[in-house]
What does this fold into?
Amino acid sequence: MKSLLVFIPNNFPFETSGYINGKVLYDNESDSKKFYVININTNDSQESNSELIGYYSGTQNTAGCRKKINDWIEITFKSDNSVQTKDNSYYSVKNVIVDTKTIEKSNYHTVIIIYDQKALIKSELFRTQNLSGNHFLELKDILEKKIIEDKIKKKNYFENCKETLLMYMIIIFMYPVLFLSKVTSKLLPIFKYSTLGLHLSGWLENIKWILLTIIQDKKFTLKTLNPIVAITLDILLGVFLIRFLMQTIDERPSHILLDNAEKVVDTLKNLVNWLMGAPAGLKLNYSFNKMLGKFFLYHIHFWWTFLVSIKPVMDFFFDVLMLFGRLGITFQIAIAADILALVSFHAYCIYVYAARLFNLQMRGLTALFRLFLGKKKNPLRERVDSCQYQADQLFVGTLLFTILLFLMPTTWVYYTVFTTLRVIIIGFGGFLTKLRFYFQVLPVYTFLCWLFNSRCVHSSVKISLKSIHQDRSSTLMMTTVRSSWSETWVHCIPDTINHNPPIEWKMIVKNIFWGELLYPL
It folds into this structure.
């Protein structure tokens, strides 16, 4: 055995003598014996106790009767005048028995670590630093098991009533949440086409996760309190914003939507009419340009007719949306995303037509260009092979290549304009998605705990040397260190809320170049 590690809590009484409760473990990697000291047991009548690991004599230097256990340690508290510090008192190990054998001090190096017991117990982020050979993580597990056992043994009537009341309150909230969650899961094939429907389903799953976590832990933790505060602020901001809009806006929301939709339709019609002429001095194919322009104008007119025809239904539709909007500002953001998709649906249809046509022409030109090189693509082996073409095949290929090449500028103009609109709409939709995510995980409670350096946001330890003594033993001081803000915030995000994946710019540029469809971020 190379070293002996003795962990002593900083709230250890100096003068009181008694038997030490704790646990003894052996570390194979460092070849060291670890004595985890938890507290002092002054009850001598407990002859057989699996938690006893030694005796502490304090300043009285009293000797205790050794119990019949394999691992035993005796600790005393003494002063060392040779140590030039303000506090020259330190803990000393007198007698150590490992596996029923007494070991000499010269055969091992003794390290006494004074740890902050309360900080380890209250730290909720410490478990995220789950590294192999972490002595303090083992110590935290031992302390938590000890606390649970003590609560079971010493639980009184008041604590039972408090815990029962908490469970009943959680169950009362749980039943309607479970019912609504089952309903939304059955309607998910319909809700998946709506941002509001997906948000409602995720919101219910988030609340269900919070309630189940509280039932499992039987207490409120940092990871459950933060989303509870975030949901409360979300609802308050949503109610405040709706009242502000109701007092500011006199017209009905459906009328405002139709007025703005009409402006969008008129702007889009003027844009298509401009493209049907000579946009920016470009000379396009007249017949093909007129055909595309009239085709797109027909879709715009058809969509506007549809919006006008459902105007009576939209009033009821907006009344329902206002009810959902009172659930929080995140619901209002989801409603805004659905309204954006509804208003820009005709522009999306035109973009799909232009993108499909551009993609078809690009692939056609690429395939016909291989004809001049005497090659063709082999889809079975996913490679380009050599091929000999006949004269009539070369003639037809050249004719088709020429037609597609001269029609490409017209298609490219429409594709460029409506792809730009699509990118703007997707960018704004992505901004709404990010905004909704940040409101869902609003770290108000977490930030206050982190700002005031609460023990619950500590995630690592700092070891400092206190003193080195004549018997070659050393004393270390352990203090917990606050986690970084980014790690603290990430840890407090509920497990049911997924991070938005990073934007793949290379894939977006590739899709734009080849005319592939762009989907929401």
In short: The mean pLDDT is 83. Residues 501 and 521 are 8 Å apart (CA to CA).
